[in-house]
Structures are given as structure tokens and as C-alpha cells.
Amino acid sequence: MTGAHLLLVEDDDMLRELLLRNLQARGHDVRVAVDAYTALAQLQAVSFDLVLLDICLPDQTGWEVLRTAQKEGWLAPVQMHGNVGQLPVVVLSAVRVSPRRLLEFRPLAYLPKPFPLDSVLRLAAEAESRRVGGTATGQENAEDSHNNLPNKEELHA
């Protein structure tokens, strides 16, 4: 089975490479963008199961990327854990994100840096599961569905 189709938007070289290697090792197809311009070009050209989006980018904010992608119809909401209308986006940020921003964009998760790598891997596995219409395999199945994501304090959402 092929993994999820992911867009990783991260300008920090070390973190980007760490995430890329770990996601690819689990069979995910990962495209990379280091700035908002490249991220928007990728979102326009390809449909993704999940976007891992850094908020502090060198040319624009991740919020501007989300706003443009939504306006242009490049990013459609998904249903997850019974919640309809969440963007298939994991917000990654070294700065605290306001609850207002989270309510405005409704990402699947918010992971403040530094975050546990397992959280990203679980979210990618869930994206794969949604794409193929089944359930995740391996370690992810061992947990109850309400525990597939880190708790609210870890997600800040």
C-alpha cells in the first residue's frame, strides 16, 4: 500500500530533513516547500492528503498560504473524528498560535515546536487511512480512535 501524499512546508533545514526522512521511510510520498511561494505552487498543482505547514516562513506566513489556498479552492476540508470542515493541515510553529487563528482555519492539529515526531507520523498514517478508506495499520491501530492524536494541551487546539 502506498502512503499518504504529503506537502511538507518547512524552512528549517534540519527539521525538514528529519521529517522528510521519517515520513518517506514509512512509505509516504512527500513533496517539500521551503517558502510560501513554492507551497502555493505545489498546492495549485497537486492534491495532497495532508499538509505539514510551518507558520513562520521567509516570504509570507503560513496563515497567508492557508488563506490563499482556501480562496482558490486548492485545499478542501475533510472529516476526521466526526468533525466536518477541518483543513487537512497540521500547523507547526515555534511561536504560540492564538486560538482565534485556530478557529479561523480549523486545522486538524497544531503542534508547537519542539513536537513529538510520533504525533506527525500518526497524523500522516491517518491521512493515508482517509485516502484509502480504511484504517491505519500497525501501532496506530493499537490506540483508541480518540487517542490517535496528542491530547488538547499538546495540540493547543
CATH architecture annotation name = 3-Layer(aba) Sandwich
Shape: globular
Mind telling me the CATH class? Answer: Alpha Beta
Name given to the CATH homologous superfamily = Response regulator
Query: Number of helical runs?
Result: 6
Secondary-structure element pattern, one letter each:
EHEHEHEEHEHH
Written description of the protein model:
The protein is α/β, with parallel strands linked by helices and 157 residues long. It has one domain (5-155): Response regulator (Rossmann fold), CATH 3.40.50.2300. Helices cover 39% and strands 22% of the residues. The chain is built from six helices and six strands. It has helices at residues 13-25, 36-45, 62-72, 99-105, 117-132, 152-155, and strands at 5-9, 29-33, 50-54, 78-80, 83-93, 107-112. Strands 1, 2, 3, 4, 5 and 6 form a six-stranded mixed β-sheet that branches. A hairpin with a 2-residue loop joins strand 4 (78-80) and strand 5. Helix 2 packs parallel to helix 3. The chain is globular and about 30 Å long.
